Input
Amino acid sequence: MMRLQYDIKYSNRKTLNITVERDRSIIVRAPRHLSESRINELVYSKRQWIKEKLAHSQKYPIDSEYKEFVSGETLMYLGKNYQLLVQDEEIEHILFEQQFIISKSNQPKANALFKEWYKQQALKKIEPIAKRVAKNLGVEYNECKVSEMKYRWGSCTPANNIIFNWRIIKAPMVVVEYLVAHELVHLIEPNHTPRFWNILSIQAPNYERAKGWLKKNGYRLEVDF
Ligand SMILES: [Zn+2]
Output
């Protein structure tokens, strides 16, 4: 039998509710009075349903969830897959020249190294677009940042900062351009009204293509690299 790991969130609710999140974590929302053993029973009675949710291949891309950082693995960057080469020779960080190269000694911390590299590239690519679109629209933002977000590609904060999920840099440039313009247009039009799309279409003329790509491939941006 499969072993299920789940988080329990107690609240004043009356019934038990199980959800499988997009990162495949299982959340069990339970009434406060319910014992853990009873919760466990209820969860296991639903295991078939949970199993199906967990196995859903399109929404939960099992293959690309974890990288081992071994030679031959591919990492996605700007819409393309690049191979990784792990070599004995020492390299300080990451080398990128039509393939990614790291040294064997850095393998254990490859995840952190790549995250740092992707975040740097993301900011480098996103900032000029944000500046250009903001100027075109006549809007001002405080700061442009990249960060770790789970289910969103970008957002603007009340302090007028625009923040992007660093993983959007895995997508083709046309998608990055669309996502950046999308957030900035929200500074003048908060809702997705026809006016919003009109303004956006001028700043990101290929936005329909970008949306199509996201619809088909968006789930690939939910995992690292
Ligand atoms: Zn929006």
Residues 110-137 form the longest helix (28 residues). The first strand starts at residue 6 and ends at 11.
